[in-house]
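Comment thread on ticket #2218

A.B. wrote:
> Attaching the input chain for the structure job we discussed in standup.
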Amino acid sequence: MTNGAVASDQYFVVRNHEEQYSIWRADKPVPAGWEVVGASGQKDECLARIGELWTDMRPASLRRAMEASASAR
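C.D. wrote:
> Ran it. Output below, let me know if you need it in another format.
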């Protein structure tokens, strides 16, 4: 990467408010509702990082509701 440019084969790991993860090309603006998690990397690196981070596929709101339900018992 030269002159501050990000190569088109670079990606970011992004996360939304439900703690769901995806990859996003580093040369594109991140959509509203998503935030960058960590540094940019190659696609396979970013997918591997998602595998490390996203260990529970349930949306955050569902996890909270299930925890609240379990606590109420």
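A.B. wrote:
> Thanks. Noting for the ticket: The CA atoms of residues 56 and 63 lie 9 Å apart.
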